[in-house]
Amino acid sequence: MMNHRLADGVEPDRVVTPTSDDEIADILRGKVASEWVLPVGGATAVTTGNAVDRVPTLMDLSGLSGILEYEPADLTVSVRAGTRWSELIAALGENGQTIPVDVPFSDSATVGGVVAAGWVGPRRLRDGTMKDLLIGASFVRGDGLMAKAGGMVVKNVSGFEIPRLLHGSYGSLAVITSVNLKVVPSHEAELTLRTGEMPLLDAIDSVLRLTREQPSIAAAVVDGDGAEGVIAIRLSGRRNPIRELADNIRASFNGPLLGESLDDVESATFWQRHGDGLATASDDRVTIEVGCGPADTSSIVRQIREQFDRDAGIGYSISPGTGSITLALAASTLSLAQWREFWQRSEIESKARFVVLDAPRAWRSGVQIWSVPESQRMLMTALKQQFDPQQRLNRGRLWDRAAEESVASSGRRL
Asked: Which domain holds residue 297?
């Protein structure tokens, strides 16, 4: 049973546990949704969002579980949104297949939650994201309308873009009830290479060079503080080719010897723990993700280091090849307003975006936790008006008050 208590201490007024699309539609049309509803799967990403004082209704989607259709020969699967991620991966594994996305807390996270949160891990470098594998979805809009888009055919493009809109929407547009996904053959083996400590910026540059030279690398990250970093490189595929690739990488690497290696289960365990660590909520820690172009990664990290004292205890987890920078710091280090002021003054906002993945409720209060350009805000407002005209889903958590008022007063349709 999931924990209905949000990490920032807000207890929902009521909890509903629908088991079908019809029940969800009835809830969204009924009195229980007259204020607003927070859809939740495994509650592993529930602290991402603007702070709210109250959650009138929490919709627990764990009752929508199970695989609806699975065609191993067609490399497709249809699964209900409340299915645990680990259960789906185990079922696919029985046929030597998988979905190449590392999901934090996979025993708790749900398939619909992974899609709604738009989770992207380091394997995006080679294997892409859930959005690339999403070929169909069933959902219930905020106004209670039940709908489907896409299908179970990989090449089918009918209604293809609507499932992509739901990816990363955090349940603000519709309640996802099932998804259709492409699956891929499981890899025969995997190997992770690790270095000792080296200067952080040198490590970033080394990884960026390696990922450009070796497109077969599955993932590569730099973890460390403001001064030093440790590189981890993930290889997967057939056993002999990845060992040859590992030898080539060692021979060409400019830095500390890539001496430590983790094979198969040890490698997979390392990356699972890595993702879990980044997604762990804390009452006194802030986690911020910055996204940029790979070529801008070093310069943005340099600007952050120059702005904030290295003794501030900021931890970095960087995927240079995908342009992802995750910062972990004590909540007392700076306020959200101070972070936004630095962001705007440094002009980083012209080439990057950020989101506060996790922070104490008090830290998130009063200021928008997403960096959204005005042009995108207008598009998001129009989408919200189209899918959820009565503001019944996730009210206030993804849009600040000004944007909400814009939605409420807008009569626009796409």
From this structure: 280-364
